[in-house]
């Protein structure tokens, strides 16, 4: 058998992420047919701030999705032998960034540097000097006088490239809508939100252009302790952040919705039991409960090494277990909220009417209560996302985060902070991780605000 | 009111039992003490004798819930459930892995934790409420909008960044205060000032926005319109009427936190080398000292339940119309 050039690998987290995307797409189609939902989403779509934030989020999601298409490359075939595949699991993003991934240095180097960060004893020399980087600035050869000029040229080339692509995009859009480009940018045909999307795309494309042009010859954000490119690590961290932010809510929601509505609608001992359950869980300080659960999960994983075929699978299992634990510990707040809201809904006329008609309990909960709670669920979902992305970094610092081999903002910060005491300081890993995290969380927060304003009738006051 | 408090305290008992059983299940049923011993000893040193010794040192060599080898009442008491979990109710937390008494350690570490947590809490509350009132006073102006944007931006920054950035700027670049450490007495001030300021700045974004929403909700009420119609200046309306009436929602979020201040802050204390309960917890997590983590979980929930009770009592103080029964 000849075999394919690569063997697709679907990690559990990939599968769940794609299920989640499919569910969101299905929900979008469903929401288009619901008048109230369409009106609310219409408000979000008209909000310039929300659309700008959504554009940034979409870029992050795209990177995360590319990083979720995993495969194992085929090893060079021996004639007559079965096709064999590499042990290492790579993703589509890795393939795109194979330059960045493979061009690692020996150890730390500053952003855009041509030399290593630390002095080393060189061969044929008694003095300790800064060795040249293997890749960063290697194309300059021995002549380093042109270093700054070279960077300036690359930056302007990147900007020009980004600008050209952006102009192509805008003119394509304008041709499709049949308007002049100038008019589009001045008044924003199709609403100011479209213009906001296009204007947000401009800096993103410029940054991409610069990163590609400069990254071709240098390490844009420098390299870390083992010489890996920090830009590559930052891009890889995005997937972990997105996974924790979304899968956790996926775990939490069914529990919170089911128990919240049951407690509020059925009442009686069911209510008492569920209330007892969530009061008990929420009385334990969050970090400690998570820490305790993660410590125990680590023991389970460490004592059963035979469950996982590859290191990637084990790291993936740890990531999923972390999402599960975060979900199990964070459903209480939403459940309490939903219970309160259900108590109010239960007394409203339409529910009373349904009861009078003899509609069954579960039918009422499903048909009449649940749809009226969806806005709370949605708001909770988007509001929690940014908190979870930030929590991941803290948990990794505490030592109960993702597997140390999983690239995430938390592990980046955690390894970089060891070097803070160095003189001069190694600041670039931290700076890169914090900036990427800030961009992701800020976009998520702004988007969440717009969603809340659009869906929550009280907040619009 | 006394009857109410007693009833609430009684209601806390089943919750604490639940917490206790949950931690017991997490620490002793999900993984048996043998599993923990194997992991802590490492692959090389695992022998049946080593595991037995490890368990005996920590008192984990008893049966989980029922000791059939013992006589009479000891069938129940000479078990892990009783000696490790039930005894927490009387304040006996056992010993940490380094052999020190946990209860004693907790009482000595409470001071430094409070020395950071209380000023951070008070200043943070004061700063956030003042900012929120300022934004509400200038509501729907450019100042308000830029203030809200600033809040959202500030709450989008990782708490780790505030600590690392603050330490770098104030201690390393400006050399104003020592980078970390702690000492007793008045000398402590120079160690405490930076963590407190960082704590306040780190929390101000989210809380200002939260208070602003509460005030805005309050300001659209009829009594505010009446107060304005009487000709009261906006300043008086805000401080006399809005602030007072917004106390109930504010208290709901704030009072519950007060008892948990004892627990200290994990991040701040570990970055600044403060010998408080937060750094105690984080060290225990890193060293996988399960006895300490278990004790902190229990104390944390006791304090949280206390906070809920205090919240209810504070309602009656803030609003004479509230009667507890």
Structure description:
- The complex is a heterodimer of chains A (461) and B (325).
- With 461 residues, chain A is mainly alpha-helical.
- Chain A folds into three domains: 6-98, no CATH class; 105-215, no CATH class; 237-460, Orthogonal Bundle (MetI-like fold).
- Chain A has 16 helices and five strands.
- Chain A has helices at residues 12-32, 35-46, 48-66, 92-96, 98-102, 147-177, 181-187, 192-215, 230-266, 268-283, 286-303, 311-346, 349-356, 361-398, 409-416, 428-455, and strands spanning 6-9, 70-73, 90-91, 120-121, 128-129.
- The chains are: A mainly alpha (461), B mainly alpha (325).
- At the A-B interface, helix 10, helix 11, helix 14 and helix 16 of A face helix 1, helix 2, helix 7, helix 8 and helix 9 of B.
What is the H/E order of chain A?
A: EHHHEEHHEEHHHHHHHHHHH
- Outline the low-pLDDT stretches of chain A: none
CATH topology of the largest domain in chain A: MetI-like fold
Biggest interchain interface, per-side counts: A-B, 46 and 49 residues
- Helices and strands of chain B: which structural class? mainly alpha
| Protein structure class of chain A | mainly alpha
């Amino acid at each position: 058998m000849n075999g394919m050039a690569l063997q697709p690998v679907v990690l559990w987290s990939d599968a769940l992420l794609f299920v989640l995307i499919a569910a969101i797409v299905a929900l979008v189609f469903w929401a288009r047919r619901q008048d109230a939902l369409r009106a609310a989403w219409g408000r979000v779509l008209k909000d310039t701030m929300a659309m700008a934030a959504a554009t940034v989020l979409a870029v992050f999601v795209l990177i995360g999705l590319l990083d979720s298409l995993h495969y194992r490359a085929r090893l060079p075939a021996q004639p007559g032998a079965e096709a064999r595949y590499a042990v290492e699991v790579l993703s589509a993003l890795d393939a795109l960034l194979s330059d960045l991934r493979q061009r690692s240095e020996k150890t730390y180097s500053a952003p855009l540097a041509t030399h290593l960060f630390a002095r080393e004893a060189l061969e044929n020399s008694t003095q300790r000097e800064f060795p040249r980087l293997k890749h960063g600035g290697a194309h300059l050869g021995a002549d380093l006088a042109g270093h700054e000029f070279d960077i300036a040229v690359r930056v302007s080339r990147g900007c020009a490239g980004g600008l050209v692509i952006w102009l192509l995009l805008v003119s394509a859009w304008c041709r499709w809508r049949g308007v002049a480009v100038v008019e589009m940018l001045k008044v924003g045909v199709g609403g100011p939100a479209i213009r906001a999307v296009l204007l947000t795309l401009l800096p993103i494309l410029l940054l991409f252009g610069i990163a590609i042009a400069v990254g071709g010859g240098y390490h844009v954000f420098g390299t870390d302790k083992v010489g890996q490119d920090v830009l590559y690590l930052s891009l890889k961290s995005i997937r972990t952040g997105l996974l924790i932010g979304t899968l956790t809510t996926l775990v939490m929601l069914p529990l919170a919705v089911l128990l919240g509505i049951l407690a509020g609608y059925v009442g009686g001992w069911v209510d008492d039991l569920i209330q007892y359950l969530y009061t008990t869980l929420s009385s334990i300080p969050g970090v400690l409960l998570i820490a305790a659960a993660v410590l125990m999960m680590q023991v389970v994983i460490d004592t059963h090494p035979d469950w996982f075929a590859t290191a990637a699978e084990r790291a993936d299992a740890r990531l999923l277990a972390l999402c599960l634990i975060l979900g199990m510990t964070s459903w209480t707040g939403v459940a309490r909220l939903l219970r309160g809201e259900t108590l109010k809904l239960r007394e409203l006329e339409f529910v009373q009417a349904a009861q009078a008609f003899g509609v069954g309990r579960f039918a009422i909960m499903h048909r009449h209560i649940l749809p009226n709670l969806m806005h709370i669920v949605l708001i909770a979902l988007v509001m929690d996302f940014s908190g979870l992305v930030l929590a991941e970094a803290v948990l990794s610092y505490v030592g109960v985060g993702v597997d140390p081999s999983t690239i995430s903002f938390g592990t980046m910060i955690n390894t970089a902070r060891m070097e803070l005491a160095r003189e001069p300081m190694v600041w670039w890993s931290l700076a890169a991780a914090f900036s990427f995290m800030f961009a992701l969380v800020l976009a998520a927060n702004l988007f969440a605000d717009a969603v809340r304003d659009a869906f929550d009738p009280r907040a619009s006051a | 009111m006394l009857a109410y408090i007693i009833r609430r305290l009684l209601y806390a008992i089943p919750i604490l039992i639940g917490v206790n059983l949950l931690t017991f299940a997490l620490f002793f049923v999900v993984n048996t003490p043998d599993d923990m011993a194997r992991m802590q000893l490492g692959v090389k040193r695992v022998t049946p004798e080593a595991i037995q010794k490890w368990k005996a040192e920590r008192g984990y060599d008893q049966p989980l819930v029922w000791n059939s080898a013992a006589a009479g009442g000891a069938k129940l008491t000479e078990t892990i459930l009783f000696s490790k979990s039930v005894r927490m109710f009387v304040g006996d937390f056992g010993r940490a892995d380094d052999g020190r008494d946990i209860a004693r350690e907790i009482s000595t570490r409470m001071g430094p934790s409070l020395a950071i947590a209380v000023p951070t809490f008070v200043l943070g509350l004061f700063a956030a409420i003042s900012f929120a009132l300022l934004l509400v006073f200038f509501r729907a102006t450019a100042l308000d909008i830029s203030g809200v944007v600033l809040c959202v931006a500030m709450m989008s920054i990782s708490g780790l960044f505030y600590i690392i950035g603050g330490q770098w700027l104030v201690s390393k670049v400006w050399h104003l205060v020592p980078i970390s450490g702690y000492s007793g007495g008045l000398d402590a001030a120079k160690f405490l000032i930076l963590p407190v300021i960082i704590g306040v700045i780190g929390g101000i974004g989210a809380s200002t926005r939260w208070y602003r929403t509460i005030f805005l909700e309050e300001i659209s009420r009829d009594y505010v319109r009446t107060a304005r119609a009487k000709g009261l200046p906006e300043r008086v309306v805000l401080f006399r009427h809005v602030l007072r009436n917004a106390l109930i929602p504010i208290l709901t979020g704030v009072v519950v936190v007060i008892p948990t201040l004892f627990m200290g802050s994990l991040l701040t204390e570990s970055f600044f080398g403060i010998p408080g309960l937060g750094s105690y917890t984080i060290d225990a997590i890193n060293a996988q000292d399960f006895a300490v983590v278990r004790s902190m979980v229990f104390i944390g929930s006791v304090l949280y339940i206390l906070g809920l009770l205090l919240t209810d009592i504070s309602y009656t103080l803030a609003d004479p119309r509230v009667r507890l029964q």
